[in-house]
Structure prediction request, 198 residues.
Amino acid sequence: MSTDNEIIQRSLEEPEAFSGIFERHVRPVGSYIRRRVGADAVDDALSETFLVAFRRRGSFDRSVGSALPWLLGIATRIVKHHRADEAKQWRSFSAAAGAASLATGDHIGIDDRMDADSAVRALAPRIAALSARDRDTLLLYAWGDLTYEQIALGVPVGTVRSRLNRVRRKLAPPGSHSAARLTWMAKEESDVAYGAGA
Prediction:
C-alpha cells in the first residue's frame, strides 16, 4: 500500500494518482467540514478543499507521514469563508444534537448520549463565542482527531496546549474551578459520519 507521501509524489507526474489521497481522506475531512458548516455547505467546501490540495500538492511537506493534517488545515481555511454558515450551524446544533446522536449506532450507551447532548446544548453558545483561532484549534483536536503536534504546523506545540487549556477554562461551567471535560466531542462516536443519512 502506498503512503500519502508516495501518492502525492507520483501525482506530480501522474495527476490522476491524487485520487488515492481523496479516497483515503474524504470521509474524515468531509465529516470535519460537515460539523463546521453543516450539511448544506459540506459538498462545496469539501470539493474546494481537495481542489486546493491538488493545486498545492507540490508544496506538501513530505517529512509529514499523513496528508490528513495538511488537508484539515486547508479545510479550516476554507471554512473561514463559510463563517456565516458555521454560526448558523452552531445556533441549530443544540437542537439537532439529540436527534443526531440517537439516530446513530448503539456503541455508546443512552446515558452517555444524554450526557453528551446536554453538554452540547450548554456549550454550543460558548463555543460559538470563542475566537476563530481558539475554535479552530478545539475542533481540529476534537473533531479532526489531530494530535497537538499535527495541529501545531507552523506554531509551537506549547501554543496548541495553551490554546486548548484556555478553551477548557472558558468552557468550564460558571463558578467552576475545574476545566471543562470535552469527552462529548472526542471522535464524536455519536455523530453522523459524512455521507450517512445525507
Q: What stands out?
A: Residues 98-110, 186-198 have pLDDT under 50 and may be disordered. The radius of gyration is 17 Å. DSSP finds nine helices and no strands in the chain.
